[in-house]
Amino acid sequence: MQLRPSAHVDTFSRDRLPPVEQWPELVFDVPEVRYPDRLNCAVALLDDTIARHGAERRCLVTVTESWTYGDLLTRANQIAHVLTEDLGVLPGHRILLRGPNNPWLVASWFGALKAGAVVVTTMPLLRAHELDTIHRIARPVVALCDHRFTAELEAADTPGLRVVDYGGAGEGTLAARCAAKSTVFEAVDTACDDVALIAFTSGTTGRPKATMHFHRDVLAIADTFSAYVLRPEPTDLFTGTPPLGFTFGLGGLVVFPLRVGAATLLLERATPEELAAVVAERRVTVLFTAPTAYRAILGAGLVDLLAGVRRCVSAGEALPVGVWRAYHDAIGTRIIDGIGATELLHVFVSAADDAIRPGATGLPVPGFRAVVLGPDGSPVPDGTPGRLAVKGPTGCRYLDDVRQADYVCDGWNITGDTYVRDGDGYFWYQARSDDMIVSSGYNIAGPEVEAVLGTHPDVAECGVVGAPDVRRGLVVKAYVVLHPGVSPDEATARALQGFVKRTMAPYKYPRLVEFVDELPRTNTGKLRRAELRRRAAEGTPVAGAGPAPG
After folding, report:
1. Are residues 288 and 406 in the same domain?
2. For the segment 385-404, what is each residue's pLDDT rounded down to a tens digit?
3. Domain count of the chain?
4. Which of 4, 92, 369, 483 has its CA 20 to 30 A from that of 524?
5. CATH at residue 35
6. Using one digit for the tens of pLDDT, what is the confidence trace for 328-341?
7. Closest by alpha carbon to 542, among 522, 526, 521, 511?
8. Is-contact 440 473, C-beta < 8 A?
9. Residue ranges under compositional bias (Low complexity) (predicted)?
10. Within a domain: 91
11. Helix (H, G, I), strand (E, B), or coil: what is residue 280?
12. What percent of the chain is predicted at pLDDT more than 70?
């Protein structure tokens, strides 16, 4: 595939694209995704939107402040000046962003892209050793970090990384640096296929995979799923719970609203009950969250607070049909379900309004194609379970990772999900095809948790799988063999849970701990995770199991 001439001086990202023969086939079936050769997605989302709708429109809202489109443009341009003039950032350099959802994080995202840099998005709850890994893979040269989240970054082994914090007070903060900068910046004239974004996902080995997305990809998710399924309006107010480090959140809370001149209410954190209250109070019209939150709001008897929402979107895990029907019966809302992947940036199978069939994920989003493949890589008959395979204007490009060959097969992106397609072309979710634990919309690699838990001095060995949970879909369950002399009691379980919370992102900790005498293994010594998953699903103990506090 012939790439356009790059604007990147630092060619790190382009040099580490997969071999062309391992790329997915890219299809541009709808005219909206046929972009010009030169394209900077930050300019398209911000400057061009201002040209159409004006700078005085509200853009980024929090519970305490409001930024107009003009305010965001000013900050983004000043940040671009800080990066290029103060920090020596060149086109193609990687900029790591770390912090909760707030306007300064969004401004940093736009400023980095306008400077021609590649944004490395990260989840704010990541711990030092996880940031170590991201640094080794993406090699960012600068980090823009919320001042409340610098400790783990400073504790990480990140040689050569310059950290500038925002949100606090002080001479060297990002805001202080911006104050002296021009509010005008000429954005770098990037190619449409220059890398704009590196987003991390987790594989079943626990080693995160870095997915690379072009400037055109960022717009493509807005011009497919958002334009054809969500259909937002300039008067909409978006909000939701997914972090902007998660591409579901980046699309739903930044890219989609700004593409049409709408506004977004950024929440740093909110319980489901708090989310429902703020949705009603602020008159939110488009909501993005996971099935976990929809279930919790339902259970708390607060569904009526969402009656004014025009579009409720659910992704990250399968939406139970009972939850969908409960919302529809209570307030007439038809929740939009969908499946996406970090590798493809956002949602590629979904449906809205009259096209929804409760229980089905939906149809291929216009611009995407989807099939169900059998073990031999050929399409299976309708009604037969198989591997979901997708093509579209976006696709998997891992950064220098041999697992590219596993994800892309004969031009198809193989998502790792088992699906059935019915005779009308609707796709029905069956299960994950690998060892990923999808809990409350978070992807958690069981082997990664095992690696951390196994470093505790009381643990001889362990196996980690997902256990069914009504609220979260799945929860992390650890089967633990203790060293002799360690008591298999609740205090030990709590200690192990706390250890994991302190060592890695807290949402990955095992909510269930079961002590066992031994783990099931194959003749070659390989852990039989399938057996553990079966036991967890049945709720039956492994032979020789002790108490299971959690």
Report:
1. yes
2. 999 999 999 999 999 999 99
3. 3
4. 483
5. 3.40.50.12780
6. 999 999 999 999 99
7. 521
8. yes
9. 538-550
10. yes
11. helix
12. 96
